[in-house]
Structures are given as C-alpha cells and as structure tokens.
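tool=predict chain=A
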Amino acid sequence: MVFRQAHGPFTQWERRVSTSPDGQIHEITSYGIEVPWFGWLYALAVAHTVRHRPPHGSMPWWAPPDRLDARTVRVLGLLAAAAMASAFTNTLFTQTVAFAADDFGVGNTGIGVAGSLVRAGIIITIPLAVAGDRIGRRRAVLIAAWSAPTITALGALAPNFGLLVATQAIGRPLGLAVDFLIAVIAAEEMPRNSRAHAVGLLALANGLGAGIAVAALPLADLGDAGWRWVYVVALIWLAVAVDLTRRLPETQRFVRPHVRRTTIDRSRFAVLAAIAVGVNVLVAPASFFQNGYLDDERGYSASLIAVFTLCTATPAAVGLMIGGRAADSSGRRRVIASALPFAAAGVVASFAVGGPAMWGATFLGGLLGGIAYPAIAVYRTELFPTGARARASGLLTLVALVAGIVGLLSAGVLLDAGWSHGRVMALLALGQLLAVMMVWALPETAHRELEDLNDID
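tool=predict ok
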C-alpha cells in the first residue's frame, strides 16, 4: 500500500507499507520539506516526528497548532530570515556608536543627540507602510530589505560622525519597516489558530539577528577604525534580500479583491496605541539603564554583566514559544492579563533588590514578558482590514518608539533628580497596568479569521 500526502507541510511525502512472506510488516517513509534558512534547525525534529508519528489529530510540541501547507512553511522561513536582517540593522548603531564616537572625538552629549536622531528617523517608514497597502506587502518588503543593509553598510565609509548618523537614521528605520511589514505578511498567511505562534517565531529570529550584531562587535578591536568592519558585515543580509526576491509570494489576502483605500478604525487604533505606550514606557528604559545600574549600584564588572544578561535574558526565548502557543489556544487577552502584571513586577524588583533575588526577579520578568509579547504584537495586524493593515502596523510601531523615548527621557530626569532606580521603574510600571486594563476593550481574536474581525473584508 502507498500513502501520499493530501495536505501538509511537506513538498513530497510517501509512506509504503508492505508485508514480507514471513508475515513481517515493513514501512518506508520518504519526504521532503522546504524550510528556508532554518531547515537545519528543524531537520532532527521533523525526522523524529515522521519516525514516531504523534496520535491522529495532534501536533508535536514544537509545531504550530494548525497543520501548515508547504507554501506557508516556505513563507514563514523567509520571514524569519528577514526578521534576522531587520534586527541586525536595528541593533548595529547602538552596539558601535561608542567606538565610532571615540574615533571621531565625539563626547557623550553628541552620542545622546545621535541616538535621538537615529530613533527619530522612524518617520521615514510611514511612506513604506502606506506603500504596503497600495502596491503590496511583497514589493514594500523588497524595497526595505534591499535598502536597509545597503544604506546601513554605508556607515563604514562615513568621513565624519554626522554622516554616520545620517546613514543610520535612514538604514535603521528601513530595518524597522521590514519588521512590521513581515508581521503583516505573517498574519495574512498563517491559519487562524497559529498567528501568535508565528509572531513568537519571528521574535526568536529577531533575537538571533541582534545576537549576530553583538557577535560581530569584536571586529571593532582591530583598531581605532575597526568599528567600520562591523558595518561591512551588514552586506551579508543582501543574501536574504535576494532570496526574498526569488521566493517570497504576495499574500493571498492582498491578491484577493478587497477595499484598497480604507480608513483605520480609530477606536481600535487608540486602544492599541495606549497599550503600546503603557508597555514601552517601561520596557525601553528598563533595558537601557540595566547595565548602568548593575555597574554603578551593584558593582558588577563587564564580564559579570555579560553572564547576568545571558542567564536572565535567555528565558525570554522560552517565554516566546510558550506565549505564542498559549495566545493561540487560550486567547490573547487572558495571556496578557495573566503575564504582563507579573512581568512588570519582576522588572521593578530587579532594580530594587540585590543578590540572588535580583537574578530571580530579572529571570521572571524576562520569561513572563516573553510570554506576553506574542499576544500583544499579533493584535497590531489582526484588528485592521487588508487595505489598512500595513499603515496601522507602521503607525503603531511609531507610537511604541515614541513611548520608549518618553520613558527614557523621564527615567533619566528622575534619576538625575535623586530618585532610586527601583522607584523610577515602579512609577513607569503603572503603564503596564494601563495596558492590562485597556486590553479588555479589544475583541478576542484567537481562533477567528481576519475577515471575521474586519467586516469590510
């Protein structure tokens, strides 16, 4: 007997069952699966699942709740690669600015102004968000995916600090545009029970891309101008742009007839904007001031800070996997309400206590924050129609970034005024409580098609 795949993630799958003359049953299964860029990561898990098939109707723990088809698997792999490229370009300037400033003789004030200008460059992503709704998600992503690493790499040739900042004020926002555009594609391509799972996977890939930027940092030790080589590394992400050009299709929802010029639902946008503000007004300063706090208040060396970060931040990756599956099975609102307040408490405690308790609090904050993230992030694409989805996602990204800037400035002023780190974070954590209250004003989107959530579609 021969069994072949009718629907599933494999490009080809065949199981042959035969009986030998002595009565023994022999089974041979052959298959092929295309997971761009991350096939090596899934190879053993897929082989184990094929060899030891789970009970009928159930999925292995590492797989999304829905059974994907080959097209969706291919698209998700491409989007994960794009997420790595996006994170690299978003992280690069932050990691190298101190080395470049030393090379050009720029002080701390100049570094602060440069950081603000690069963040303010987010405004240039708005035309790409509009383009995503007008000319298609694929074409907008390709524009950003080719431009972001190319312009970012021009920083290697900058003759002065001002031109370095100018290249990154364009390149970094283009990387952010890739990030929110691929989130739109993921929402439109994934089945209704797996959208949050996809967000979690893209966030994991995002972290890997940022890690590659950090791993390239030793190139800065090659000399006073060694930091320029880190910018050259950005060109490797053109390989992702080439692959996206070759294999990324336009989303099926955008191709289908839909209302092209539609407005953004103001009430939904206002609620999501309030949630973005509440979350980011704490998250941005907590991450930015953590190393300084460990150095100044706890006396940690650079090596010990690195160990602390590795041991306490890694659980966030586990949280993303747990949170994505929980948000798809139990609902977005329940996951956010259950995880976010305790994540905020962990962050506040990490700035208020020392010793093992500080390590434990940071661990808890990272884990629970990772659990809450997919449920929060997936809302940005689910609650808007096809004709406005990219615009809404881009504008919410802008709101989140501005909220982070407000949090950074507020924390800096309060710390300079003599407030303790714990007291400052406790004040900013009130925004997390606002986010939890606001989320109940949103509809539950788990298990529902995007068309059910947006009547105009």
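The chain is about 70% helix and 5% strand. The first helix runs from residue 39 to 51.
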